[in-house]
Amino acid sequence: MKKVKKILTLIMIVMISIEVIYILKECYFRATSWMIRENRPMEQSNTKWMSEDGTIVFCVDVNIGKGIINVNGQVIDILVADSTKIAMEIYPLDALDEEKNYIDGTRKYETWLCYYKSPKEFVAKVTSKTTFFKKNQKIHFYRVDEVESKSLSDW
Known about the structure:
eight-stranded antiparallel beta barrel; 8 strands; 2 helices
């Protein structure tokens, strides 16, 4: 009888431990999901972002960014869009129609895995061979200011 009681007690302890771990995991993922969402540039309309070296600049309108990449003196117009909670995709500017639908997703220039440090800073890591950068290259971005929405249509 004592053996059965010990086994049942052990089973209960294991089950309670699993439940506590599950609850803690859920709390962590909900909290980090909220923090990621709040820190993503595409969630911050009417903001301007610039890479640390100044070669990439984009302004965010409603859930999409328009800007430029300066590669060896050649200025390329780009669209910046969220692809997942932690990744951004870079497209040519003409890959979007008037209704903000992607015309041709196969023309994507880049996909970056992003670490959103704060609402004013993030780091993009190039995940594979890309159009403009090297694999595993890190690009630091900073929010430089807030802009009026009318200026976004000038791109």
